[in-house]
Write a structure and sequence with these properties.
By secondary structure, the chain is an alpha+beta fold. Helix content is about 25%, strand content about 25%. The strands form 3 sheets. Strands 4, 5, 9, 10, 11 and 12 form a 6-stranded mixed β-sheet that branches. A 5-stranded antiparallel β-sheet has the order 1-2-7-13-8. It is globular and about 55 Å long.
């Protein structure tokens, strides 16, 4: 059943919902650095935010607006300063850790790696973790929104229960207001930097997250009561939130489940705090490899 659902999404788009609320600038401890031979990171200080939950929400079998919730991040968030580059992705391909891009897809080394699927991003995270001894992973949708800060806006729309199509039309009109022909992969920095020092958020590269597409029923107060997750579809964040089938590399050809499809699919990773034991094990492993 899951395979059939994923194939269905690969050829048609269904209605999507809201994104995170635009945030006031937060006070951040920004630290741009390289972790060993890892990527440049930005460390964002703990803080709070208002967040529009991802997914499809209904109340009494009718479309409902996604709930707005308050989140607090109690630990710093270390996230890549820019998306994974084409050059770095090709290193993973040559090392056997990643699948090569589709034939005909050529991206300059100093540009973000695009036309990659969620599975490609997961493979790269696993490869980079093995290579550096650190733990890299895709951000959750909540983490991406927190890192985006004022670069992202709440794209929630009121729901007309008597005519849900009005909401879908409003969403499509707003999303299609962007330049749909702008699909080029640009050098890093093209789309600016936010208050945390993170580059190119909400540009023309949508970024995979680890968050699954969820259908939820909400009560009269807007609280989620029952949820069904479909992890064959993941949240991708960019100029607007999108839900994309996990094996899709180019959402323009199908697989988008959130209105206007993303121009490009890429990704950036977060780094988990490294434990002392893991650090020692990695240094010992490297020393033994150097001797052999």
């Amino acid at each position: 059943m899951l395979i059939a659902f994923k194939l269905k999404l690969a050829v048609a788009c269904a209605a999507g919902l809201a994104g995170p609320l635009a945030l006031a600038p937060l006070v951040s401890d920004v630290a741009n650095r390289r972790a060993g031979d890892g990527p440049a990171l930005v460390e964002i200080a703990p803080g709070a935010m208002s967040y529009r939950a991802a997914g499809d929400f209904t109340r009494g079998n009718r479309q409902a607006e996604a709930p707005l919730v308050s989140l607090r991040f109690r630990k710093p968030l270390a996230i890549m300063q820019h998306q994974v580059s084409s050059a770095d992705y090709q290193l993973c391909v040559r090392d056997g850790g990643c699948r090569a891009l589709d034939r005909g897809v050529v991206v300059a080394p100093d540009r973000p790696a695009v036309q990659v699927s969620w599975h490609d991003a997961e493979s790269y995270a696993a490869w980079l973790s093995r290579r550096t001894g650190e733990h890299y992973r895709l951000p959750t949708d909540e983490e991406w929104a927190f890192a985006a800060g004022s670069k992202f806006r709440d794209d929630g729309l009121p729901v007309d229960t008597s005519d849900p199509s009005k909401r879908w039309i409003s969403r499509y009109e707003r999303e299609s207001d962007r330049d749909l022909s702008d699909t080029a992969a640009y050098p890093f920095g093209k789309f600016g930097v936010n208050e945390h020092g993170v580059l190119d958020l909400a540009g023309n590269v949508w970024e995979w997250t680890s968050t699954c597409f969820v259908r939820s029923r909400v009560d009269e107060a807007g609280r989620a009561e029952r949820s069904t997750a479909n992890c064959g579809v993941r949240v991708a964040e960019g100029a607007h939130r999108a839900y994309v089938t996990d094996f899709i590399r180019d959402a323009r050809a199908g697989g988008c489940a959130a209105g206007v499809p993303p121009a490009n699919l890429g990704f950036r990773l977060v780094r988990e705090p490294k434990s002392w034991v893991a650090g020692v094990a990695h240094r010992v492993s490297k020393a033994l490899s150097a001797r052999s």
